[in-house]
Amino acid sequence: MSLLVTIIIVSSMTLEISAYDAMAVSKAEIMNSSLPSLADLAEKLKPAVVNISTTKTIATGGYRSPFSDPRFERFFGGDEFFKRFFGDEPERELKQTSLGSGFIISEDGYIFTNNHVIEKADKIVVKLSNGKEYDAKVQGKDKNTDIALLKIEPDNGLPVVTMGDSSKLRVGDWVIAIGNPFGLSQTVTAGIVSAKGRVIGAGPYDDFIQTDASINPGNSGGPLFDMNGEVVGINTAIVAQGQGIGFAIPIDMAKDILNTLRTKGKVTRGWLGVSVQSITEDIAKNLNLESAEGALVSDVFKGDPAEKAGIKAGDVIIEIDGRFVKDTHELVKIIGSISVGKDVNIKILRDGKNKTFTVTVTERPEEKDLAEKEPDKSGQYFGMTVQEITPDIAEHLGLPDETGVIISQVESGGPADEAGIQAGDIIRQVNRTRISSLEEYRSVMERAVSGESVLVLIQRGKSKFFAVIRK
User: Fold this and answer.
1) Which of 199, 198, 196, 204 is nearest to 142 (CA)?
2) pTM recorded for the entire structure
3) Rg, Å, the chain Cα set
4) Using one digit for the tens of pLDDT, what is the confidence trace for 332-362?
5) Which domains does the chain have, with CATH numbers?
6) Catalytic (active-site) positions
């Protein structure tokens, strides 16, 4: 009996192994048939990919004495003590080199790369796949999208890439990256599109393609190809601690600004003159909104297009020229793509009703500096203490008037602290009621404390935003 059992077990194992072998062969055959070699495609694409080396000059402060250390400074007077005895060493200049990638988009020598690859470079050298080198000049650049256009003067016509349509990419599509990682020229890696529309905090127009095709330092500015051999992205960023996570700028974004970079050297973008914030569930509830979609206007800059058209803080922008505004990121993208001087129809939601305003878009200005703040003490609600804004405080903070109240103290771990409110913030509204004085603030807050939460309009520096404070 035991012998019979043993034979059955062995026979069963033999059958299982045979089935496993057959299944393994079947999988290998499937993989080989569905994933052909990329060698032919890579050979075709590599000639249009270039290496970019840059040199920039950095000024150094000469020799730094040990007396510069704060521990010695108060006893020896810092560097002055050292210089008195040993002399002052003159400032020196150092040459810093870096490497990146790019790709040729025209036979006469126009090349796309990243702005950060060539930023502040004194000298830019482009090396072709055949080993020829050319000095390059910056034809145009855009820091906000991290895109730069270079120009070289080749001896003959150059091989060029075909630019594709990044909007047609789908998560799971195969892609190829070619570039110059760590100075290793013409390196080819492959992977898939892991995600689209990634916002990684690189700039106001983030809309990255995420891929697991290996991207490393030196790949920046190089092309991301689809399986048709068309460029769908510009490899730009990596996650330092991560593996298999790289980001590329969609080629559609580069195509949109190509002509402007070529003819003007820079990109001008539209500006409404509003500060906006995303709508949380708490804010939507306090504003009686049906959903958290749209962009909440937290501030309107005086004299700018939105203020002239009649848009106010507290309005929710839901459409621009018929294009739905899902959130603040979508709003910035839409406005940034609109030509300066164009009239646009902006639909907003105000007090539960739709209104439409015609706004003339102007050019986006430089970012404004934040003002410094200085708190003091008096009166408390929701774990924060406020005080009246005196003429001295208004003058010190550069405020146009003395309306509102200034927060002088925030209780650690209290409701205001958990809502992200800080000492030095100025409260302009409470539950949509404008605050002009400490007396008005106390009156409104006395009514507000009976509820579960309160909606406040905060001014921090020169920006404004809404916050919900919950008990």
Assistant:
1) 204
2) 0.63
3) 30
4) 888 888 888 999 999 999 988 999 999 999 9
5) 46-151 (2.40.10.10), 162-264 (2.40.10.10), 270-363 (2.30.42.10), 380-470 (2.30.42.10)
6) 116, 146, 220
